[in-house]
Amino acid sequence: MTRVGIIGATGYGGVQLVRMLLDHPQVEIAYLGANQNAGTRFADIYPHLGHRVRLTCEAVDPVAIAKRCDVVFLGTPNGIAHRLAPALLEGGCKVFDLSADYRFTDLAVYQQWYGQERTDQATSSTAIYGLPELFREPLRHANLVGCPGCYPTASLLAVAPLLKQGLIDPQSIIIDAKSGVSGAGREAKIGSLFAEVESSVAAYNIARHRHTPEIEQICTQLAGNPVQLQFTPHLIPMARGMLITLYAQLRDPGLIGEDLLTVYEAFYRQSPAVRVLPSGIYPQTKWASGTNTCFIGMEVDPRTNRVIVVSAIDNLIKGQSGQAIQCMNLSLGYEEMLGLPTVGFYP
Amino acid sequence: MTRVGIIGATGYGGVQLVRMLLDHPQVEIAYLGANQNAGTRFADIYPHLGHRVRLTCEAVDPVAIAKRCDVVFLGTPNGIAHRLAPALLEGGCKVFDLSADYRFTDLAVYQQWYGQERTDQATSSTAIYGLPELFREPLRHANLVGCPGCYPTASLLAVAPLLKQGLIDPQSIIIDAKSGVSGAGREAKIGSLFAEVESSVAAYNIARHRHTPEIEQICTQLAGNPVQLQFTPHLIPMARGMLITLYAQLRDPGLIGEDLLTVYEAFYRQSPAVRVLPSGIYPQTKWASGTNTCFIGMEVDPRTNRVIVVSAIDNLIKGQSGQAIQCMNLSLGYEEMLGLPTVGFYP
Amino acid sequence: MTRVGIIGATGYGGVQLVRMLLDHPQVEIAYLGANQNAGTRFADIYPHLGHRVRLTCEAVDPVAIAKRCDVVFLGTPNGIAHRLAPALLEGGCKVFDLSADYRFTDLAVYQQWYGQERTDQATSSTAIYGLPELFREPLRHANLVGCPGCYPTASLLAVAPLLKQGLIDPQSIIIDAKSGVSGAGREAKIGSLFAEVESSVAAYNIARHRHTPEIEQICTQLAGNPVQLQFTPHLIPMARGMLITLYAQLRDPGLIGEDLLTVYEAFYRQSPAVRVLPSGIYPQTKWASGTNTCFIGMEVDPRTNRVIVVSAIDNLIKGQSGQAIQCMNLSLGYEEMLGLPTVGFYP
Amino acid sequence: MTRVGIIGATGYGGVQLVRMLLDHPQVEIAYLGANQNAGTRFADIYPHLGHRVRLTCEAVDPVAIAKRCDVVFLGTPNGIAHRLAPALLEGGCKVFDLSADYRFTDLAVYQQWYGQERTDQATSSTAIYGLPELFREPLRHANLVGCPGCYPTASLLAVAPLLKQGLIDPQSIIIDAKSGVSGAGREAKIGSLFAEVESSVAAYNIARHRHTPEIEQICTQLAGNPVQLQFTPHLIPMARGMLITLYAQLRDPGLIGEDLLTVYEAFYRQSPAVRVLPSGIYPQTKWASGTNTCFIGMEVDPRTNRVIVVSAIDNLIKGQSGQAIQCMNLSLGYEEMLGLPTVGFYP
Fold first, then answer.
1. Angle CA(A159)–CA(A161)–CA(A167) in degrees, nearest 5?
2. Which CATH entry fits the domain spanning D150-314: 3.30.360.10, 1.20.950.20, 1.10.150.20, 3.40.190.10?
3. Which subunits have 3 or more CB–CB pairs within 8 Å of chain C?
């Protein structure tokens, strides 16, 4: 059994990891770290898991953790992971970071958008971007993985086949993203209160959301040329789920929807976490809820010569913790979807 | 007192009309028409209005209605109004139609998208498009008004100043629309069930929604050239409210957000139903809920040279029945917002 | 015009007061107090009111406030009002307190349940309990009013006719209350986050909620004998609204539903804020949303000889700020429902 | 592998069965019956299951079904199962009925509350009531099981230990039930529309809900004396989940909460689907969502000498299809919780 530790175990990402790893046949949870809740039984924070989890949250000491764990997930705020990971790696752990710290090939971009100085390019450059559908092979040998969050995951899975095949004008990409509010984490904020969020939808951080450069970085790799795109996140009155509506101008005016469907199906043939929907069917986020599956549908508008791609994920699973486990499975040589849910409860 | 009749009084649009007209100081509700519910007390359908409404629903007989009413609102499905309106107009009524029947200057476009033959161009061409912010003067003399619904209202209010001033490339317009589910009406449909809608968001009718040609018709008038645009509606897990996120390419790369704010403020200075928000503030649909107000915010992205405009309305009020009353006020010479709510309850 | 001040203006109760007083024809808002937000424009906190409210929040100085206001609403946490009210009363203001400070005839009960010492029995004993349906006459001459919140309001309106007429065994009363989450106020708390509240219902403070002794105090007055009852509050995944389901054993096994309906209709004949529903109709909280109306329905179970009464209110209006304005109207000699909404938007 | 058929496969109960049986290691789904959808691919109705389910819905022919299935679940409306079951039993199937047809020991009670004549007492009397926590041993040998729905399941699990131990006055039982709207099934009804249900709570069928006699039947067996109780269902704005708040008068005024906790823990020690919560913790329905677990918390009120028990389940799993699988597991000799989810996703 692989011994797993989770640092930042009491947030929404942490509790997803705990819940899914409980059902994973090849791992045991050996350590739950949470500085603010050190000494508290995990079951006192999440009583619904009391019959399954007996562990107590502990303070974060990387050297001690490395002795007890083979794999460590970091569910800490941006700027923490790059201080913890080196000691964990040195202690022989594989590290899966859910923050932004290890997602950028160029730390200058990270510094510009996240405002933190970084001098660890040596370690950072060994990190693999944890999107299995695009980086499956490197992930099989990864010790340090920068796992993308919900916006880049759903956006990149929607656009990758188009860019890879050179079917669209990369500068025409517009991503209109709709996210459930759990993406804001388990933090007591007025903007996340039920009474504020319910019955309301709004955009935020227009033209300046931090995930923009991250999506652009991977799009640039896929296109082979620098890509600048439009990314607009919206908050939706639901706890879980994310929908991406992506617009782009087709290069070839003769392409029809069926052509693109063929391209997508080929691109994702080996990807068990992606399901391309039949023609005319668009995904609902409820279908993805409670699963590590991304549903993708698309349409071509012959009037405007645009393609519209819609992708849906569970923001906390395929958009966060489930994907991190998928990366772990690959790096440990397990079956890619081992222990991960693939069908949700409906309704 | 102006005597008002409502045909199609028991749907969501009808009950909004009833509720707001109860508070209107210059009208009395003289007739409630609903063929399916003829003979039923309105208060039996909506018990919460029992202390205010004593009327019984009646069958629809235009000649009889014209004798009892000065003004008639038509809240009937598409394709009904153009059969009822002529008799009502002949009987001396002013007619405010909430369906698509009288919104098109070219009936061929209506026939193409709505699949019904029309031979009433003579009557139809007297209809005014019921968006007061763009057609205030003609509405003052209108007897027949084709009131736009929520998608065109929120879209056109978001884009009108840009097109009127020639600030954007009209072919670059993308409208990503998010609608509360009451827009689907009070019809028993599986897709509108609570258990299907809650915790879910999805796109529908991509590249083929019927409101596309209607929005394009007015945009074409504003731009002075034929406009084709992208319109994608989404269903949001909320009862009321609509948010439009509109993208367009700026013609002048030197424009900044403050410039546009000035343009919008000038454009809507005489429009009591539109509120342009200060720089950096984007609207939430909850702010508009229960009001006849449209909130508009915007941002310029200097990286992509696009403008992103966000508008929020209550889909059933400014996006439907409230706007119809606003048109009625203009055509009867009342103060434009008379009897209409301008501030909502929050939260 | 009556000059009105609101202390604690930025909470959910405060913003309701502001919104409704804006529509009140006999008052002007002269002062908004909020120590934490002193110096901030009210419209910066609630941008949707920016076109109607120009005031800036100010620090709380009772002597200064008394000079500028004829009436002051106190929307402060429990334990603050009894320190502010004396100076306001001395300065000639009428005071309407929305906290628990002035609701108890016996301050020992307050001290026991709220844990604060009180030595102001002299002032406190001049306070009138602000439930107009039970204390209309004393309220006409009141200068200090302790306005009840949502649980006591909906509970007492449901049970009052039964106790007053001696129709039930008072010791058999069970109140099962369902509340929207806005009742917890605009405080950043994990338990009020959207992701925690949505799709969930739970009981809290079973057998020890602070509103129990307050409800019992008024029930005791109505029954003429000490009453102890069961009160269980539940949190419901909705922002606004409250439903009370009240159970009691009938004294006379021959009573039928129609008898009770007659009793309730007689009891509330002069009460414009209460609407007794026809036989067989039970209220939905949505009907009451956005109104100062309480809807009441009831049923007798001949099998168990119990009466079940259901009442529905908007917890923030009839259950809080609307009722406080209703009390103000009475004490200033205005029409009882002046400026208060009586019909909601549906759906 | 046990071959399983589902009749009524396209409703909410059916799709739960399909989803859970897909994960069950000892069964294969051999037949999906749905007369209205006969000939339609199941994946066309539920596209999110398209990657897992290849079956097409078929017409209902009991004789043919019996040849292809070892076990049949009946998810049909009340009154259908008793016409289908005899042929299935004769064909050698084990039958698990999710309707009310086989829940009553006395068919006269069924006839009185469900309005259908029944002459099949011989077959009917072989049926076991499918609540494993109370009828585990008989279920191990059952061929025909009448599986209870959500209201009786959550109610009986809450009250059983009290009645079995004689700790309460049975005539004092009041059950205030709160149900998610999926309990109404996947039927197009106005009362189940999102716009009607959201932001609203209401009681229905007060004093006359059909589950009352069913709960009373089992309570009578537990108490050893005829029990009549009060049952009031409420609709809550959530898709899934059920909370029962149960009130009863304690016989012994000296009992405290810890005593009852001990009684409950002992009663459910061998029941893997029930989790008794620690003192002071009350369940939230969200904890039970997506699981076959019932959470129970309780409190004693020394002031009123009442016990208040709160139980939470997922109405579609432990309250319906999960419980039916639990019964199947017992009757086939599998581990009781085989293939059933025990921990939910949170939030």
1. 90
2. 3.30.360.10
3. A, B, D
